[in-house]
Amino acid sequence: MSAQENAMRPLLGTLIGVTDLADDIKLFRIELNGERWSYEPGQFAFVSAFGVGEAAFGLASIPGRTPALEFAINRVGTVTAALHNLEPGAVVGVRGPLGNSFPLDEMRGKNVIVLGGGIGGAPLRPVIHTILDNRDEYGHLDILWAARRPSLLVFTDEYEAWRAGSDTDLYLTVDEGDGTWTGNVGLITELLEKVAPSPENSVAVICGPPIMIKFVALSLQKLGFAAEQMVMTLEAKMKCGIGRCGRCNLGEQYVCLDGPVFGYDQVSRFLESFV
Amino acid sequence: MSGEIEIEIQNGIRVRAQKLLSLGEVGCIIGYERGPRGQMRPMFVYDEAGVERLVWDRTCHHNLVVYVRDKVEAQGGGRAGGAPPPRVAIVARPCDVRALNVLIHEGQLAREQVFVLGIACPGMLDGDKVMAHCRRCKERVPVFYDALLGEPPAIEAEDDDWQDVAEIEALSAGERLAFWAQEFERCIRCYACRQACPGCYCFECLAEQVDPGWIGIAHRVPEKAFFHIMRAFHLAGRCVECHACEQACPMHIPLSLLNRKMAREVQELFGYTAGGDADVPPPLATFRRDEELPL
Amino acid sequence: MDTDFEPKIVGFLCNWCSYAGADMAGTSRVRYPANIRIIRVPCSGRVDPLYVLKAFQEGADGVLVAGCHPGDCHYGDGNYHARRRYALMHRFLDFVGIDAGRLRIDWVSAAEGNRFAQVVAELTDEVRRLGPWQGLGNGRASTAQEAAQREVTAALEGRDR
Amino acid sequence: MKISSREALAAWLDALIADHILIAPRRVEDDLLYRPVRDSAEIVFEFERTALSPKSFFFPETEVILQVEKRGKEVEMGEPALAGEQVIFGLRPCDARGLEALDALLIDRPPADLYYARRRAATALIGLACPRLWDGCFCTSLGGGPDDAAGMDVMLYEGDTGYWVLDISERGRELVQGLEGEETEGEPPASDRSGERVAVRPPEEWRARFDDAYWQRLAERCLSCHACTYACPTCRCFDVRDETVAAGPGHIQIQRLRAWDSCLSPAYRRIAGGHNPRPDRAQRLRNRYYCKFCYSPLDFGAVACVGCGRCIDVCPAGVDIVEVLAGLAALE
User: Fold this and answer.
1) Is cis: bond before C49, omega within 30 of 0?
2) Which chain D residue shows the shortest CA-CA distance from B208?
3) Chains with ≥3 Cβ pairs under 8 A against B?
4) What is the enclosing helix (H) or strand (E) of C66?
5) How does pLDDT run across B15-39, given as a tens digit for each residue?
6) What is the number of domains present in chain D?
7) Could you tell me which chains touch chain C, where touching means 3 or more CB pairs under 8 A?
8) What's this model's pTM, rounded to 2 decimal places?
9) Which of A100, B25, B258, C51 is most buried, by CB atoms within 10 Å?
C-alpha cells in the first residue's frame, strides 16, 4: 500500500544532518528515500520516530533550495526527545506536506513585517528567504526576531545574510538578557512599538507561542494594522493532520485543514481562543 | 417507613440550606436534585430560589465530595488574604464524610471550608433492596458533621463474612486472572470510576501520563487491568467504600470488589479503616519499626 | 510443564545493601541463576508498586524487590515503607491473579552474597514451578471485539470438526 | 416483500455465520452489546438499545494502523489485513445514521480513512426497526425515525405474524435470498413515532450562545469522564502512538496504534510543555455539543447526533442531552 492510498502512512526518509540551533532546539535535515514532494512555505509535516510516535512540525526549509526537508525541533515531549537522540543516517517517517501556506503571492509589492518568537521563527524562515531571493518583488522587509533568552534565538548564523538583504532590517530582542547579550531586552511587542512599522501597504506575518501571537496582534492593531493585514501560523496538538482526530479544532475550523496559516480576520472569528 | 425518613432528611436539607444561604454562611450548596428522567443527580444551589429543588432519597448514590474542591476553588479558594476561607455546604452520608477526612488529611481541603449536612444514613437502595455494603455498614452517623439530618436509625449491621472476596480467593491464581480479564474486557476506559472517586484527584493520572508512558493508549485488557489494579493500589487505605466508582461504571464492573479486598487486607495488616480520623495517617504513609508483617 | 521454560525475573535491588549483596555474590563466585535481570534503585522504598506491575506487564515471570534489613536503611526508614507497601501489594496482586509466588520481597545486606544467591535460586525455582506468566488480562492482548471474535472463530472451528 | 418467522430468521443467520462474522445484540453480563455471535441462539431479538453503539466494528477502540519492522537501516512498513466480511444484525435506524455521520468525515471528505472505509465496505447492515421510541430516544427530532431504513442493506420490521423483510441494496437482496419467508402484499407495520421531541437550533444560534453562562452551569455536574463519547455512535476523536512489540540487537518491531480518545479529557488538548487551550471542564463539554450541533452542520451539512440516547444512559452524573438542547432552545 502506498502513502497515496493511506493518508496515515508516512514515507521513509533518512536523517542526513542534525545541527544545534539553540538550547534544546535542533535543525533536522531529512531526505526522502525515493519519492519527492513539493511544498510551500507555511506547510507542515509529521515526522515519525519509529517506536515512539509521530508529531507535527512546520517545514523550516526553503522550497527548491535543497532536496532535504528541514525541521526545527524543540525537545519537549517523547517524540521530540526520541528524534533528538537520533544520529545522522537514521531512518525516520515523514507524512506531508499538510495544511495551507503563506500567501506569498498576495504579499507581492507590499512591505512585509516578519515577527517570530522562539522556535516559532522556524516556519517563517522560508518566508524570509523567499522574499530575499525575490527581493524586487516585495517592499521593505522588517524582521522582528525574539526569544526568551539569547541562547534560544534560532537561525543565528543566518542573521548576517538577512541583514545584508537590500531594504531589509533585522531587529532582535530577548525577554531576559545574559552576560554576553548587548542587544535589545524586552518583549517583542515593546520592540514592535519601538520599530513602529507603518501599516501603509504592509502585511505582518507572525509565528510564535499563542500568548505572543495574541499580544503582537493587539500591538499591530494599535499601530493601525487592519485584521486582513495580519497573517499568522498557529500550532495545536494534532494526531492526524487531515481533520480526523478532532484535536486541533478552533470552532468548526481545523488548524491542520484550514490552517496552519490564518488571517487575523479568520482567527478573530474563532469561537474559541487559541491561547 | 423508608419514605418518611427520606422526606424528613430532605426537609432538613432544605431548611438548613435556606438558612445557610440567606445568612451568607456558604456560597454554594452541593446536593441532589431529581433529573428530567426521575433519576437523582448532583446539583449546585447558590441562592434561596434553588433550595426547593434539593431532594434526597436512598438512591442518591453520588459521592458529592468529588465536587467540593472545585467549588471551594470557585469561591476564591483559600487564597483571599485575611478573609475567612470560602465555604461550601455538602450533603454527605457517613462514607462521604470519611472521604472528606481523607482529603483533609491530605491537605486538599480544610475542615472549616465545608459545612457538612450529614445524613443519618438508613442505607442506599438498589431497586427495592438495601445495597449489600450498606447492610454491612456499621456507621449510621457521620464521623463529623455540622448538622445532622434524620434520626440515627436503629439498624443492626449485618456481619461482614467477606463472602464476595472469599469466593474470588477460593479460585486458583489462573482462574482469578481469567475472572478479572473477563470483567476488565468490558471496561471501555472511560475513567468514570476515577472521575467519580473523591480520592482520585491527581492533576495528571498515570493512565494519561505520556512520559513515562506507564499504560499506553490501547483499550485492551492488559492496559485496562493495569489501570484498575493501580487505581486500587493508589486507594489503599484511602478508599472509603462509598461505591461511587461502581455506581459510575457504565459497564457494571464489580470495581468495589477490588477495593474491598484491599480494605480487608489493610484492616488485617494494619488495623486501619480509611477516613475515620483526619489526624491519623493512612497505613502506607506511616510505619512501625517493630511490626512483623508477612511478606 | 514446559521443561525449556527459563523464567525471566526482574530484580529491583537497593543500591546500598542488596545490589552490593549481588556484587558480593559475584565477586565471591557464588553461583546463582542467570534468570534475574537486575535494576539498581536507590532504596527499596523507591520501588513504586507501579514498577512491579509494569515488569509483569512487560513480560517478567517473577519480580524480586530487595533492600536493606529493617533497621539498616541508608535513608533511615525507606525499607519500613517498602515493607508495608509490599505486604499489602503481595496479597492484592495475588487477588487479581498474579500468583503470590511470583513476587518476593526480601532483605539482603551487602555482606550476604550467599543469601542473595539463595533468594534468587528459590524465587527462580518457584516461578519455574508456576510456569510462564500469561500476562495481565490472561493473555488477552486484544480489544473486547477481537477477543469475542477469536472465541467465536474457535467455537466455529470446533463445530466444523 | 416477504414475511419471515423468527425460526426462519434464526436459520438464515446461522447460515450467514459460515462465511461472515455475524455481529448482533448479545448479553454480556449485565449489559447488552453488539458482539460477534457463534449461534443465533445468543442473539437478543427484543431489546431497546445496546449500551454502546456499534461503531467499534468500523472504527475499533484500538487498532493497529501500521506495522513497522526495522532491521538496521532497513525499514518495512505495512497495514494489517482486514479480518473478513461482517454482517451486523439488529442495527437500529439511529445507528445507521450514526455511520452516515462517520462516513461524511472519514470517507466522503478526501483522503478517505483507509481503515474505516474498508471495514465499512466489508460490512452488511441488517436493520431492525424499533416499534417505538424508548426512554431517552429522540431520533425524530433529528430527522430520523424508529422505522427509518436509510443506510441499511436489509430492514426488518416485526409484525404480528413475523418479520417483514425489506431488501434495500443489491448486497441486501443477495443476502436475503437465503431467507425463507412468505411473499406478501402490503406495507410493513409502521412504528409509533410519538415520544420525546426537542428543538435543535441552527448553527448560527449556537454561535451566538457560545459565551453564555449556560455552558458553565450545565457542566457543573459533568465529571469529565469519557463515557458519553465512547458510547456515542458519532464521536470519533482518536489518539495515535507507537508501541514496541519486540526488540533485539539491531532489530525492532513496532505497531502504530490508533485508539479512541475523548475531547472531554483534560489531557486531550494539553501540548508537550503543559499549555492547554481548553483547561476547563465546561469548555470541553461545550465543545462536545458544538462539535455535533454547530461545527458538523457547518462542515458537513448535517448534525452529528442521531438521538440514540446512549449518552444519557451512560452518564454517571445525570447530564441529559435532551435537557441540554431544550435548555439552549429556551434561552432568551
Assistant:
1) no
2) D267
3) A, C, D
4) strand C62-67
5) 999 999 999 999 999 999 999 999 9
6) 1
7) B, D
8) 0.94
9) B258
